[in-house]
Amino acid sequence: MAKRESGSQVAATGNNQGVNLARTEASSELLRELVAHLRQNRTQLREEWVSRIAETRLLTAMTKEEIFAEATSVYDSYVEALETETFEALQAYARNLSERIIPRGVETHEVVGIVLLLRDVLARSLFAKYQADFKKLNRILDAYEPAANRIANTVAVGFVQERERVIRQQQEAIRELSTPVLQVRERLLILPIIGVIDPQRARQLTEQLLRGIRTNRAKVVVIDITGVAAMDVTVANHLVQTVEASRLLGATSIVTGLSPEIAQTLVTIGVDLGKMNTVGDLQGGIEQAERLLGYKVETLAEPR
Amino acid sequence: MEVPILKQGAFLIATFQAALSDADLNHLRMGLVQQVVRFRSRAVIVDVTAMDVMDSFASRTLREIAHMIRLRGAETVIVGIQPEVAFAMVQLGLTLEGVATALDLEEGLAYLNEKFKTAN
Questions:
Q1: Of A214, A241, A250, which is closest to B101 when you measure between CB atoms?
Q2: Structurally, what CATH architecture does the domain formed by A182-293 represent?
Q3: Where in chain A is the domain with CATH 3.30.750.24?
Q4: For a disulfide at A290, which of A57, A148, A282, A295, Cβ 3.0-4.6 Å?
């Protein structure tokens, strides 16, 4: 009895595997048929796709010839991805494509749009081909749709990732450029701040300034904020913190270049800058710093 | 560990050796306030170069020392605050308001000498 049971179990599992195998075989066979169809009608489908792209006014930043060339290679990689069911090559292609077209101002919705258009064009051609045999059409679509959706997903994700990479790179570049601490005279430093101050940058600025004060043994620091476009409570507090930290190291700070707009904002939001020594422009700030340090600047002769 | 208080001319110098306990800080405060009058000192320099952490108690004690010394008729200068410590202090709002600060001992002495030269 037991023997027979185990025997039947083995048969059952064997059978199951057989069904699974048959299913995947059927699916890949369908995909093969699909790929053959797409290869056969390559020229016609591609042209239809390109004309649909033009119709919907996508990729306006590119010329017709460029779109056609790009469309050809996208079409071929698309069919190849369907055939092999591996997406690495397509992913690499999508990244490469993004690298080329992002600087030209192509938007995310355009890239996603053209891939979805291609999916629709191909689906339509499948409808046309199998309209007589509904069951077959259903099975073909079952095989086609998940693969097509995955392709669209892969391309969109590739594009967005590339975009994010570019943004990260630019942010890093800006950050590196942004915080020079300069010595203009013995014991006098200038810190010109340009652009937006966020918490991370404020921290970096302060750390760099404090290090500069110690290595140059500075007594006076002129912080010039002519290049700061806007100021809010957070930024103002960062500035106050920078000034206070410098004072703890024994350096006097002079803040210069507060624009009328910023002065207005600070008064309106009620930030107390009473602890800060402010002077209208950088020149005035440096002159006051020189007085504090005991310098006296004289012209030796009339300028010629 | 107790903080030694050194007499240097008209000034007293207290140098922190390492992180101090609250009891040490209280002891230092009393020692400075007593000795500043005994030695008829004009100023006190507290050197915190060796401190790599400054908590709120230490910061408050430094401020109290400065204010008590002022009531006893002398000046206080805190010297040698490290950049990292200064940054952490302002973030915690410990800014030692109304207390003179200098980069290091040399700067502190220069500051006081300048101040008392003009006063005389």
A1: A250
A2: 2-Layer Sandwich (3.30)
A3: 182-293
A4: A295
